[in-house]
Specification:
Elements (H helix, E strand, L loop, with lengths): L1 H7 L3 H4 L9 H21 L1 H24 L21 H6 L16 H19 L1 H16 L11 H4 L6 H13 L4 E9 L8 H15 L2 E3 L5 E3 H4 L2 E4 L4 E4 L1 E2 L9 H6 L3 H10 L5 E4 L2 E11 L10 H21 L5 E7 H14 L1 H20 L10 H24 L11 H22 L6 H28 L7 H37 L13 H10 L17 H14 L2 H21 L18 H13 L19 H15 L11 H19 L8 H6 L28 H8 L18 H7 L22
């Protein structure tokens, strides 16, 4: 039927005004009457098709009238069309007002291709259903979004650098997982950077005593849980069994270990600067320097690592204790009498600051949302004096759809095990852009349909025109974001996957919630209800009072809203389009675009790679001070620790140990390798030789020479001759009871037994080692026997 209408109007291209020609009034009237007769006959046969034809005929009539006006001829007013369903076309005046938004060509009412027809049919049915049951559809869309948002109850937040900015599918990630599985998860570090407030040297006795005071205050803190339980540093620190000590110790690393964290040792040191400088030159400890002056040091505390779950509340206790620790640090830093300035960083603290970054900038997002809402309301409703034609409530659904889409999208992502990260909320701006674009497309398609049609069919026709466009843009955006999942960069993947899910939810809410609100808004305007207060019904005098005071006579809002003015569209269509299409401007746009592309390509060469940590933190964060101190005192000079892990090797074979020695020797020869820490293979080789010598001497094999036996041994240092077994702390039998100065200096970084006298007492730090190597200094020899007394067995 539509093709027959277009066939009757096939002469229209010849009637379109051209230069020197004009459309005749009689010819135009004849075409109008023929089209109206065909539409009336079709309406008696197919009610649904008649409505579509009726709207199309109205479009053609408006186009012909526009042609006549452009040719300078007056056109007679066409009588209103009538069908068996009782639908009538809009008055000629309202139809003329809509000429700018309607097509001037005789288009077919359905697409030519079968796929396009099928898609349009689906969206037409969706629109009819939504327009027929708007309240049910809106409520259902909100309930579905709330149900999907329940996944946020199990949301996790990821801010650890090695989990965000390091690829997780390469060999390094595999090595990290292997290390965590074999040796346990690495502890959580908490690092203090300490330097003088006056910028002076740090390697003086008063300053180091102040650093020791700081350390003692921190490790002596005790927090209290809600149930009254005390939490101390010993409850949250990371402990490691040290064979040389014979028990577990909290792991702390700092230059204070030069004096065994003992005040007496530090006070008795006559030349603190020489001790610090010597250890620094030997790369035993690390200091922050400016020139040749030691100005800063680091104190590293290690805490129990965080697992996937926290069943015993250990990590929660650590967070509680660390919060008390930070308060103490800030109080000391603000104390004018305390000589040191302190900055602090930890994984937990960095994560908290990253989360506060989102909270602190939330007002900016809210302000941006307000401006976008104003733009949407003006774009959808235009500027009009008729309070029924404004669309403030309809525009506010943009915020509702965006909020529900974010909540439900992130909820689905949380169900899939994808955590949030500091930059996740930025997806809000992407969703606002997508939602606003979809809303404008749907509203423009809705206004292009004859307002005389019922709301459900009008919405169906609008979605049949706009649905395919919105679907294509939403699907392509979703696929584009999903490609980020396949990039081995977790920060990008954790952003792209939730963003794609949020875009899908925006599409769902636009086709359901917003479409239902659009149908309700059209009904509100037709019932003469106030926009911001739909419960208030306005009379004609109330509606027309303000416009008449302004000298304007408003049209019927249900007839399409001829009074509605959209300033942005007017500016673009009338002014910017004319400027842009001028020949000089065309050339300028092309040249400017090519120049911009060239400048961008040139600037890419100096584009920095990476994400500086300070960019993920809010302005004024205390961690930024830590980063500044790190850059100021250790810029490119901080020592880095590297672990060598041996796999797939029989460590019980002597040839394997020899191969390890050769490999380590080659590594030690590298110019950037400063030193090797204590090597277990040296201890194992000494133990192996001593145990073998003992077997040869006694003839008892026992459990044999195995790694398990070595690990279960006391791990004492042994110095064995060819045929004797002699523990380093004393000779067996009637041998002399003397200090093993050489062996103790090897273990203590060059310090002799005289400096370790305060550690001889059982329970002191390293007391087993001190008693073992410094027997005479510790008074372990038998009374009255002098240096020839035998050393009693250690407990």
């Amino acid at each position: 039927l539509a093709r027959r209408i277009c066939a009757l109007a096939s002469f229209r291209p010849t009637l379109k005004p051209t230069r020197g020609a004009a459309m005749g009034t009689e010819t135009m009237d004849e075409a109008i009457r023929a089209a109206e007769r065909e539409a009336a006959d079709a309406a008696t046969r197919v009610d649904g098709t008649a409505r579509i034809l009726h709207a199309r005929v109205d479009d053609m009539v408006d186009g012909w009238r526009a042609d006549a006006d452009a040719a300078g001829r007056s056109a007679p007013r066409s009588p209103a069309l009538s069908t068996s369903t009782g639908a009538s076309s809009a008055p000629a005046s309202s139809g003329a007002a809509r000429r700018g938004a309607k097509s001037r060509e005789c288009r077919l009412p359905r697409p030519q291709h079968a796929v396009e027809r099928a898609v349009a049919r689906v969206f037409y049915r969706v629109g009819v259903f939504v327009g027929r049951y708007p309240w049910r559809v809106a409520l259902g869309a909100v309930l579905v979004s709330c149900a999907l948002s329940a996944g946020l109850l199990n949301v996790t937040f990821e801010a650890r650098s090695h989990k965000l900015y390091i690829p997780q599918r390469d060999f390094m990630a595999g090595d990290r997982l292997m290390l965590d599985d074999a040796f346990g998860v690495s502890p959580e570090p908490g690092i203090l950077i300490v330097h003088r407030k006056d910028g002076g040297a740090l390697d003086t006795k008063p300053t180091m005593l102040a650093v020791l005071d700081l350390h003692e205050q921190l490790v002596g803190l005790t927090a209290q849980t809600d149930d009254g339980r005390n939490v101390s540093f010993a409850d949250v620190c990371y402990r490691r069994y040290i064979g040389l000590l014979g028990h577990e110790e909290c792991i702390v690393s700092s230059p204070l270990e030069l004096w065994w964290y003992q005040r007496e040792q530090l006070e008795d040191d006559e030349d603190v600067r020489a001790t610090a400088d010597g250890a620094y030159d030997a790369h035993t400890v690390d200091f922050g320097t400016k020139g040749d002056v030691i100005e800063a040091l680091q104190i590293k505390y290690f805490f129990e690592p965080r697992g996937e779950t926290d069943p015993d509340g250990r990590y929660a206790r650590y967070q509680l204790w660390e919060e008390l620790m930070r308060e103490q640090i800030f109080a000391l830093d603000a104390d004018g009498e305390f000589p040191l300035r302190i900055s602090y960083w930890s994984t937990n603290y960095n994560e908290m600051e990253a989360q506060s970054f989102v909270k602190d900038d939330s007002y900016l997002m809210a302000l941006s949302l307000v401006f976008i809402m104003l733009y949407v309301c003006i774009t959808l409703g235009g500027v009009t004096a008729d309070c029924r034609q404004t669309r403030l409530l309809l525009g506010s659904t943009c915020a509702l759809c965006t909020g529900l889409a974010m909540a439900s999208g992130f909820g689905i992502a949380s169900m899939l095990g994808i955590p949030l990260q500091p930059i996740s909320p930025i997806v809000c701006f992407t969703l606002l852009g997508v939602a606003v674009d979809d809303m404008i497309i749907i509203v423009m398609a809705f206004e292009a349909v004859d307002s005389a049609l019922p709301d459900d069919e009008r919405l169906g026709l609008a979605l049949s025109r706009a649905g395919s466009t919105i679907t294509v843009t939403s699907v392509t955006s979703t696929v584009a974001f999903l490609t980020g999942y396949f990039v081995d960069f977790p920060a990008l993947a954790y952003f792209c996957v939730p963003a794609s899910l949020c875009i899908l939810m925006v599409y769902f809410l636009q086709m359901t919630l917003f479409a239902a609100c659009l149908s309700l808004d059209a009904k509100r305007a037709r019932d003469r209800r106030l926009d911001c207060c739909p419960c208030a019904v306005l009379t004609d005098d109330q509606v027309y009072r303000v416009p008449r005071m302004l000298g304007r006579e408003p049209s019927n809002a249900a007839a399409g809203g001829a009074d509605r003015i959209r300033p942005l569209q007017i500016c673009v269509n009338k002014h910017w389009a004319r400027i842009l299409l001028a020949n000089p401007m065309r050339a300028f746009v092309v040249v400017a675009f090519l120049a911009l592309v060239g400048a961008s390509a040139y600037a890419m060469r100096s584009l920095p790679v990476g994400l500086p940590p300070r960019l993920s933190l809010p302005d004024g964060s205390p961690i930024i001070e830590f980063i500044d101190d790190l850059d100021a005192f250790w810029a490119g000079t901080q020592m880095q620790e590297v672990q060598l892990v041996l796999r797939n090797a029989d460590l019980g074979e002597a040839s394997t140990i020899e191969a390890i020695d050769r490999a380590v020797g080659r590594l030690e020869a590298l110019p950037f390798v400063l030193r090797f820490g204590p090597r277990w293979d040296h201890s194992y080789a000494a133990w192996r030789n001593c145990t073998w010598a003992q077997i040869l001497k006694t003839g008892e094999l026992g459990e044999g020479i195995t790694l398990r036996r070595f690990l279960e041994d006391d791990a004492e240092e042994h110095t064995c001759g060819e045929s004797e077994v002699k523990p380093a702390h004393a000779a067996t039998g009637g041998g002399a009871c003397v200090d093993d100065e050489a062996g103790f200096k090897k273990l203590s970084g060059g310090r002799g037994c005289a400096l370790a006298v305060t550690h001889c007492k059982r329970g002191a730090v390293g007391w087993r080692i001190v008693q073992s190597h410094c027997a005479q200094t510790c008074g372990m020899c038998a009374a009255g026997a002098g240096a020839n007394a035998a050393l009693p067995a250690l407990g």
